[in-house]
Amino acid sequence: MFSTNVWTWIAALLTLAIFSFLYRDNPFYRFAEHLFVGISAGYGVIIYWYNNMVPNLINPLLNFGHAWPHVSKVWLDGLVIIPGLLGLLFFFMFSKKYSYLILLPLSVILGMENGLSVPTYLQAEVIKQAQGTLQGIHTPFIAGQTFFMVNGLIVLVGVIGTLSYFFFSREHKGVLGVSSKVGIWFIMLGFGASFGYTVMARLSLLIGRVQFLLTDWIHLIK
Amino acid sequence: MDRRIPLTIVLVLGILMLLQFFIPSRASETFFTDIFVRWGLLLYIFALIPSVGSLIRHHWRKVGARREGWAYSIVTLIGLFVMILVGFLDREHVLAKVKAAGLFRTLFLNVQVPMQASMFGILAFYMASASYRAFRARTLEATLLLVAAFIVMFGVIPFGAYVWDKIPFISEWLLEVPNMAAKRGIRFGVGLGIAATSLKIILGIERSWMGGGGK
Amino acid sequence: MIWLLKLFKIDRRILFLLIAAAVIIPLVRPLGLPTAVTPHAQHLFDAVDRIPPRTKPVLLSMDYGPNVMPELQPMSMAVVRHCLARKIPIIVMTLDPNGVGLAEDALHRAALEYPDVKEGVDYALAGFKVGGYLVMISIGQDFQTTFPTDAAGHPSKEVPILTNIKNYDDIALVITIAGSAIVENWIVFAVTRYHATLCAGITAVSSADYYPFLQTGQLTGLLAGMKGGAEYEQLLANNDLSHAPKRASQGMDAISSAHILIIIFIILGNIGYFLGRRKKA
């Protein structure tokens, strides 16, 4: 009935150690928790090394070194030394005197990230969504689909209501008060839907572990 | 270091990346891909250093000072170094990937996965307990939230269709119309907020990322 | 109704036991209720199914770790099985370092079920790349620079399935299975900038947030949580593409009973609350 694989037993015992926290905090749980932190950090280091550092930094530099001095075709490989050296500045965060040096690689990352974000987020989350709201009314109207057109109008009312609820530069009175009230109703319906899904999400995570215990460890289900 | 140096880097790179989106020329694309994107990817690799370094430093100091729970810190450090050692010694299996299951992947699947999955699995119990104790229909808004939650909870399970065959349709309508309207309104805010914050960082108005570093 | 008020103060560990029972009993004694397939899951299935065999590959990005594995791993397995059964080339990558082990496991299990598939030809593990949005941009600019080797260290130019991939134009469909807001990044960078066709499998917690993108067409299909996995497994079975154990579908019975229990908890809690208020008044 029970598995004879030692690794399955280790997995099952660690699972039960974590679950033991439901009764109360105890040394088995704390042991498992600390072991998890160490193992996952170590796993991350190896994955970063073999999947990123070696193919994207070390191999190009070796390539450049092997091609030296005929480097015209691989000069871009040699240039990766620049971000490599810049990245090493992250080690200075452990120095009290020179910790400000990490601002250099950070500023490169932030400059790139924010510059790339502005046009793309505006396009994807503002322009495209506004387009979708109006098309939700226009397209079914043209096709004579009354039900979908009414849905589109409800969406338009909901979007305007939600936006007006989050507009805090004016007091919510008069027309703004009414639309923000409508907005909060839509927001509550949205959050209720999210909560309904969240219940399923949390239960799924528990079911996954129970499936492992009952299938792989105890062989009670197939 | 003068604070103007990192601020200038952010300004120049930010504007370059912003403008590049609108410049389809081959030279711009090559410069963008072969230099900036490639370099950016490399910088992100090094961003692991602060997190792992801080972890080692915290637990090392805890063991050294014999603070409460220091024995558990030894467990953390042993786990970390054993995993790194196995990863480097078992290189052949780490790289062989799909077909071979060496010690490295075995440790991942039978030690890390069960613990990480279980930590999130226990949330189901706390969610159930919180639902019983805290979820109250005190106001109209809370009642709307509750009703929507019930409809979706019934709609996703097969049993819901047995109770009333219209429940899955109503649940889907709730998700596609009022839920979508609210989430879209929130998305507008998110998109505008990200664009505004990004511009503030590029222009140097927002400087919290610098902490207290530099002169 | 004093007993109802006392029920309100019940030890939470009893509630935990009730939840455990609601989960365990249907798993041991399944009800076998069928899962209805939603239109969005059908769209995702159709998007994969209409790709001609042995042409452009599917890029599956398994952007999650073990913390949400029970919800998302069945989806990933189902997509991999679909591609291998239909001989659609599939490249698996991940933007989460913990996703590598899960991707290896998924491909390893699926490859055993389809012994005639070949690594490097029918499927490949491209591995993990750090950088999130930057990886998405990098794929759109030059896939070979992003993944100079596969996860096993073989140069991409020597791996048949990877060698002809320059950017998203050479990829039939991008599917991201994610446990975080990374789906938003895929939409913003891959779809908006490079016009990639994107489908997503998301944890149930976040899936309600992505309906706006379904309506605008920025997302072609969506699988939500364990139910999404169950729907895809159902579609595979209906189309005779896989006869593997349906883990997500097994879990739906347990979800049904647990949902009903939680609804009862909420109703009882509210009755207790209103009775308590009346008693005070």
List keywords for this structure.
heterotrimer; A: 222 residues; mainly alpha; C: alpha/beta; Rossmann fold; six-stranded parallel sheet; 55% helix
Question: Alpha-carbon distance between the termini of chain B?
Answer: 6 Å
**Helical content band of chain B:** over 70%
Please tell me what the overall shape of chain C is.
elongated
Structural class of chain C: alpha/beta
Annotation field: number of helices of chain C: 13
SSE series of chain B: HHHHHHHHHH
- What proportion of the residues of chain C is helical, as a percent range? 40-55%
Largest beta-sheet details of chain C: 6 strands, parallel
Pick out the low-confidence regions of chain B: none
Number of structurally distinct domains of chain C = 2
Main beta sheet of chain B: strand number and arrangement?
Answer: none
- Of all protein chain pairs, which has the greatest interface, and how many residues does each chain bring to it? A-B, 118 and 124 residues
- Structure summary, number of beta strands of chain B: 0
CATH architecture of the largest domain in chain C: 3-Layer(aba) Sandwich
Q: Describe it for me?
A:
- The complex is a heterotrimer of chains A (about 220), B (about 220) and C (about 280).
- With about 220 residues, chain A is mostly helical.
- In chain A, helix 1 (about 5-20) packs across helix 2 (about 25-65), helix 1 (about 5-20) packs antiparallel against helix 7 (about 175-215) and helix 5 (about 105-145) runs antiparallel to helix 6 (about 145-165).
- Chain A contains seven helices and no strands.
- Chain B folds into three domains: about 5-45, no CATH class; about 55-120, no CATH class; about 135-200, no CATH class.
- Chain B has ten helices and no strands.
- The termini of chain B are close together.
- Chain C is of the alpha/beta class and about 280 residues long.
- Chain C is built from 13 helices and six strands.
- In chain C, helix 6 packs parallel to helix 9.
- Helices cover about 55% and strands about 10% of the residues of chain C.
- Chain C starts with a helix and ends with a helix.
- At the A-B interface, helix 1, helix 2, helix 4, helix 5 and helix 6 of A face helix 1, helix 2, helix 3, helix 4 and helix 5 of B.
